[in-house]
Design brief:
CATH superfamily of the largest domain: Winged helix-like DNA-binding domain superfamily/Winged helix DNA-binding domain
Keywords: DNA-binding, Sigma factor, Transcription, Transcription regulation
Number of strands: 0
Distance between the termini: 96 Å
CATH architecture of the largest domain: Orthogonal Bundle
Pfam families: Sigma70_r2, Sigma70_r4_2
Structural class: mainly alpha
GO molecular function: DNA binding; sigma factor activity
Protein name: RNA polymerase sigma factor
Radius of gyration: 25 Å
Number of helices: 7
Family: Belongs to the sigma-70 factor family. ECF subfamily.
Number of domains: 2
C-alpha cells in the first residue's frame, strides 16, 4: 500500500545579496600600497608612481557613477591605473620623436641579429637566459635592478614601445595606435630597443656577447 506524503513546500532561496557599494574613503587604505608597488615597478622613480596612483584614485572618484559591480573595486582600480600607465608612456614617447633615419644601428646591422622573415633572434645570436643566473631572491632583485636601469637608458620612444609591448603586453596594433607609429617604425624601434638592452645587460655582466 502506498501512502501519500503531505505536500511540503521547499524553502525559498534567499535573494542574492546586493553588491557592496564602492567605498572611496577606504581605497587608499585598502589598495594604495598595491597600486603603488605596481606603478613603481613600471616607472623610473617614486614620484611618478605616487602621481600615477593619485591620478588613478581621482579618476575613479570622478567616474564613480560608471562603476559596475561585475568587477571588484580592486580590479576596477587596476584597469584605471593601467590606462594611466599607457598615457604616461605616450607622454614620454613624445619627448623626442624618432624617425627611421635616426634609428640607424650604431653597431652591426640588425640582419646579423634577427631573422628576416619573422624578426626573431637568430639562433646563434639569441641572448642567454639572464634569469638562469639569478638563483635566489637577492640575485633576482639585482637582475631586476639592472634590467630597469638599462630600460631607463633607452631613448624615450624606445622605452615607451618596449614597456607597452613587453611589460603591459599590448599588441603591435594597439601600440601603433596609442603612440601614433607606423608599423614599419614600430618594428624598427622594437629591434633597436632589444639590441640596446642586450648591450647594456652584457656590459653589466648579464648574457653573452654576440658571436663573431
Amino acid at each position: 500500500m502506498f501512502y501519500l506524503l503531505p505536500a511540503v513546500s521547499l524553502p525559498s532561496r534567499p535573494p542574492a545579496a546586493a553588491p557592496a557599494p564602492p567605498e572611496p574613503q577606504l581605497w587608499l587604505t585598502r589598495y594604495g600600497d598595491e597600486l603603488y608597488r605596481y606603478a613603481l615597478a613600471r616607472v623610473p622613480d617614486a614620484g611618478s608612481a605616487e602621481e600615477l596612483v593619485q591620478d588613478t584614485l581621482l579618476s575613479a572618484l570622478d567616474g564613480l557613477a560608471a562603476f559596475r559591480a561585475e568587477a571588484s573595486e580592486r580590479t576596477w582600480l587596476f584597469v584605471i591605473l593601467k590606462r594611466k600607465l599607457i598615457d604616461y608612456y605616450r607622454r614620454r614617447s613624445r619627448r623626442a620623436e624618432v624617425s627611421l633615419d635616426a634609428l640607424a644601428p650604431a653597431g652591426p646591422d640588425e640582419a646579423v641579429f634577427f631573422e628576416a622573415n619573422n624578426g626573431h633572434w637568430r639562433r646563434e645570436q639569441h641572448p642567454s637566459s639572464w634569469a638562469d643566473r639569478a638563483d635566489g631572491p637577492l640575485e633576482q632583485q639585482e637582475l631586476q635592478q639592472v634590467l630597469r636601469l638599462c630600460q631607463q637608458k633607452l631613448p624615450p620612444q624606445h622605452e615607451a614601445v618596449f614597456a607597452l609591448r613587453f611589460i603591459e603586453e599590448l599588441s603591435a596594433e594597439e601600440i601603433c595606435q596609442e603612440l601614433g607609429l607606423s608599423a614599419a617604425n614600430y618594428w624598427v624601434i622594437v629591434h633597436r630597443a632589444k639590441l640596446q638592452l642586450r648591450r647594456c645587460l652584457e656590459k653589466n655582466g648579464l648574457g653573452r656577447a654576440a658571436s663573431a
